[in-house]
Amino acid sequence: MVGVAVCSSISSVKALWESRIKRKKEEQDEEEEQRRRRAVRGGATGVWEDRASLARLQQKLQTEDGRLVLRIEQEEWKSLPGCLVQLTQVQEWQIHRTGLLKIPHFISSFQNLLVLDLSRNGVTEIPREIGKLTGLRELLLSYNRVQFVPEELSCCESLERLEIAMNRDLDHLPDQFRKLKKLQHLDLSMNDFTCLPDCVVGLPALEWLDMGGNRLQHLPEDIHRMEKLHTLWLQRNELERLPDNISRMDSLDTLVLSCNRLRDIPSLMEDMSNRFVNFRDNPLTLDVALPCRKTKGEEDEEDEEDDDREMFGQEFMKMYIQEARKRAYAVLNMHCVNR
């Protein structure tokens, strides 16, 4: 009887453990099924979200001047969805005031892109993948928070226009930048440059340059290397003198130097045929004023505007140089007499 009791006890324990094992397995199977269902639902949700985002992006497509343009303005798009890569035929991005924080790394997929305009956002970085856009002609990133320009940008060999104005902390360009052989228009205004980068001076096709609102303290002596430059904006900097070789910039017809610390105007600039120069608000040594013009009738207001424009313009520049030369001769003659 004892043996029977022991066998019965063992059988009961075995049955209990088998029951527990079976229940545990059923619980695990149920959990696995729930996870599978959640994954399916999540995948379905992800697919649905991608479709919704893609449909929303497609609504932003426009055709302008024969180009397919993605235009998003004054909406909240802090990031761009990955499904955007399905629209690689787009040739121009116009994304303004959306709070965009990042240029996606999949930007390299847009080999048809000609214009990338992301002005007035919150972009902090130009991704290195930008260098794969060898057909890109315009890159506009003004009024963002870019602090660094990657050397890979120099691989954008078709780039003709680059605007990175008002990024505040930007103060350096990579030396490889000089490889942009087709770059014609460059806006680096309202940043933190203390000198004109040599790689900019070496750009062979550059015609238009804005360095206003930086902290430039001097200009390079070989500035005349910029042979095709016709417009140079240098207002609101800290320039105290101009290099003599600026007179050898034969293509230069617009030169703005207002709000600097210039004490004199180089005499060699007298023969420059600038269409427009401006020396307003500089602590120039000589006090020179243009002769008043006599006007009549309806021409008064227009002539006053012309006088205001020319007050520190080309005519003023030539008169200043002539006056400086007169005074120099007077000092020299006085010195000779005294001897």
| Apparent shape | elongated
Overall mean confidence score, pLDDT: 87
Tell me the fraction of residues in β-strands, as a range.
Answer: 5-15%
Distance between the termini: 147 Å
Tell me about the largest β-sheet.
11 strands, mixed
Strand segment count:
11
Task: Set out the fold topology.
Elements: H1 2-58, E1 61-64, E2 67-73, E3 92-96, E4 115-117, E5 138-140, E6 161-163, E7 185-187, H2 198-201, E8 208-210, E9 231-233, E10 254-256, E11 276-278, H3 299-310, H4 314-338
Parallel strand pairs: 2-3, 3-4, 4-5, 5-6, 6-7, 7-8, 8-9, 9-10, 10-11
Antiparallel strand pairs: 1-2
Short synopsis of the structure:
29% of the residues lie in helices and 12% in strands. With 339 residues, the chain is α/β, with parallel strands linked by helices.
Considering the chains and any ligands shown, give keywords for the structure.
alpha/beta; 11-stranded mixed sheet; 4 helices; 12% strand; muscle protein; Leucine-rich repeat-containing protein 39; LRR_dom_sf; LRR_domain-containing
What does this structure look like?
The chain is α/β, with parallel strands linked by helices and 339 residues long. It has one domain (56-290, 310-337): Ribonuclease Inhibitor (Leucine-rich repeat, LRR (right-handed beta-alpha superhelix)), CATH 3.80.10.10. Helix content is 29%, strand content 12%. It has an eleven-stranded mixed beta sheet, with no helix packed on it. Strand 7 (185-187), helix 2 (198-201) and strand 8 form a beta-alpha-beta unit. Component of the sarcomeric M-band which plays a role in myocyte response to biomechanical stress. May regulate expression of other M-band proteins via an SRF-dependent pathway. Important for normal contractile function in heart. This is Leucine-rich repeat-containing protein 39.
